[in-house]
Design a protein that fits this description.
Blueprint: H1 2-15, H2 18-47, H3 54-66, H4 74-90, H5 96-110, E1 113-117, E2 120-124, E3 128-134, E4 140-147, E5 154-155, H6 157-165, H7 168-181, H8 188-209, H9 218-224, E6 229-231, E7 240-244, E8 251-252, E9 257-258, H10 263-268, E10 273-288, E11 293-297, E12 304-308, E13 316-334, H11 335-340, E14 348-349, H12 351-355, E15 375-376, H13 377-385, E16 397-400, E17 405-411, E18 417-426, H14 432-450, E19 467-472
Parallel strand pairs: 17-19
Antiparallel strand pairs: 1-2, 2-3, 3-4, 4-5, 6-7, 7-10, 8-9, 10-13, 11-12, 13-18, 14-18, 15-18, 16-17
Helix pairs in contact: 6-7
GO cellular component, one term: mediator complex
Family: Belongs to the Mediator complex subunit 1 family.
InterPro entries: Mediator_complex_subunit_1 (IPR051999), Mediator_Med1 (IPR019680)
């Protein structure tokens, strides 16, 4: 019996081959995969007749876009236009078509009209238009500006230069400058006189500057000129009057040296404290439309002095506007002096900035809604010079020098009230020298005290070797 069992076991063991079994299983799996692939390919072949060519798909897409099934959403259309305009700013202009598309986009954003007339491009408003002349190859040839109040067109080299450089940001700024002259609430016939008024006051201010232009020392001219250094209007950029330049403004970080002040340096860089001459809408004022400044020799000294002709019906007219000296950066000024000059309610002030300063108060008896925010002078200078990072000197203002460290504490003088001025209006050129003399004194006072404000400087560990200084302003001159 045992022999039989051993025989059966031997026969059973010899009939099972594991390698063959695994091979059969792998073959079955591979055949199953092939069958699935064939089935999938058959499905694809059955739908191949429904596929369209690229040209057919492109045509179907264009037809679908032209088909207006739904009403246009104004918000979505505006957002799409903004996206397209943003994309235009990233595309480099290398052809005539690129220039046309970029100028059309800029005109649309500024609310101006654009027209492409083969060799000439027009950008226009009701008051002026630009004629952009192209040569036969599509390259820029000239840019002419025509104002409604002028018979002849004027070639504008500044606009030509910025378009040749591809500087469309500067081109946009100049277009905005031209448009700002005519932003008056008046009829077109009255608006046409706005540019005449700007040209007249600019001519008078430049003639006043010519009184001191014989000196070759720019620093001396800046000191002696009653209107500062006058940089004439170029293109759409307004006339600029530079009235104070601090020594800090002349430091070159690249060469680590002090630059000499020159007219070229002032033209190329926005140095120091300056104002631009602008025209803004306001209540009706009598403004000049012809130059009013002449010169006569003084009997005693023999020097030429300016003579301001009074405004009359021949050289002026009533316009809903006022001339404005717009500061390149807000300046803390003496409020009492502004009030003495009759400008306390007129200048544009930065109320939001002064409102955040500690201990800020409003003059008694005045309404908060009609007056600028009044603050103590020291706090306002610290707040402005630190670019709103500091509000006072309670923790000390540290200045680290190569061989020593200073710590300044500013003591407030409650009698010295100040406000932050951004622009000052005027109606006659005779007022400008008085305003600039006032701003020059305030800028000198501000530059001196702001030199003690270094937001990046922190408290030093060796406080014993630090020189502690207390600064107190007796007046705006001491």
């Amino acid at each position: 019996m045992s022999s039989v069992n051993n025989k059966v076991t031997t026969i059973g063991t010899g009939s099972i081959n594991p390698t063959a079994l695994l091979t059969n299983m792998s073959n079955a799996i591979e055949k199953n995969k092939q069958w699935q692939r064939e089935l999938l390919m058959e499905r694809i072949r059955s739908h191949s007749s429904q596929h369209k060519t690229f040209q057919e798909l492109s045509k179907a897409m264009r037809m679908g876009m032209l088909e207006k099934r739904y009403a246009l959403d104004a918000v979505e259309k505006s957002n799409l236009q903004k996206c397209l305009d943003s994309m235009q700013h990233c595309i480099k202009v290398t052809s005539r078509q690129g220039l046309v598309e970029r100028l059309e986009s800029l005109s649309r954003q500024l609310g101006l009209k654009f027209m492409d007339d083969t060799k000439v491009l027009f950008i226009s408003t009701d008051m002026f238009f630009l004629e952009i002349v192209l040569d036969a190859n599509g390259a820029l040839s000239d840019v002419k500006v025509h104002h409604e109040c002028k018979v002849e067109q004027q070639s504008c080299s500044e606009l030509v230069d910025c378009l040749n450089r591809g500087d469309f940001a500067d081109f946009t700024a100049q277009l905005e400058g031209f448009s700002s002259i005519y932003q008056l609430n008046a009829e077109p016939k009255v608006k046409t006189k706005a540019f005449d008024a700007m040209q007249a006051v600019e001519s008078d201010l430049y003639n006043l500057f010519q009184m001191q232009s014989f000196s070759k020392d720019t620093q001396q001219v800046l000191k002696d000129s009653i209107v500062g250094i006058v940089l004439k209007r170029h293109g759409g950029h307004p006339m600029r009057l530079v009235y104070f330049v601090s020594p800090y403004d002349l430091i070159s970080l690249e060469s680590k040296s002090l630059q000499s002040l020159s007219l070229d340096l002032l033209h190329n860089k926005q140095l120091g404290f300056s104002v631009t001459v602008n025209l803004e809408a306001s209540s009706a004022n009598k403004l000049q439309i012809l130059p009013t400044v002449s010169f006569a020799k003084e009997s005693q000294s023999g020097l030429e002095v300016p003579v301001f002709a009074p405004l009359n019906q021949m050289n002026s007219m009533l316009l809903p506007a006022t001339f404005v000296l717009r500061l390149n950066k807000p300046l803390p000024v003496c409020y009492n002096t502004l009030r003495a000059m009759g400008l306390c309610g007129s200048p544009t002030t930065s109320q939001a900035s002064a409102a955040d300063i500690n201990n800020s108060t409003v003059l008694e008896g005045q309404h908060k809604a009609t007056l600028p925010m009044i603050s103590n002078i020291m706090s306002l200078i610290i707040y402005t010079a630190s670019e709103q990072q500091l509000k006072n000197s309670q923790k000390g203002l540290f200045v680290c020098l190569p061989d020593q460290t200073h710590c300044y504490f500013f003591t407030e003088n409650k009698l010295l009230k100040s406000t932050l001025v951004q622009s000052i209006p005027f109606t006659e050129p005779s007022q400008v020298p008085k305003i600039l003399d006032f701003l020059k004194r305030q800028a000198l006072f501000y530059a001196l005290l702001s030199s003690c404000v270094r937001p990046q400087s922190k408290m030093v560990n060796d406080i014993d070797s630090t020189i502690i200084l207390e600064v107190n302003a007796i007046s705006y001159h001491q």
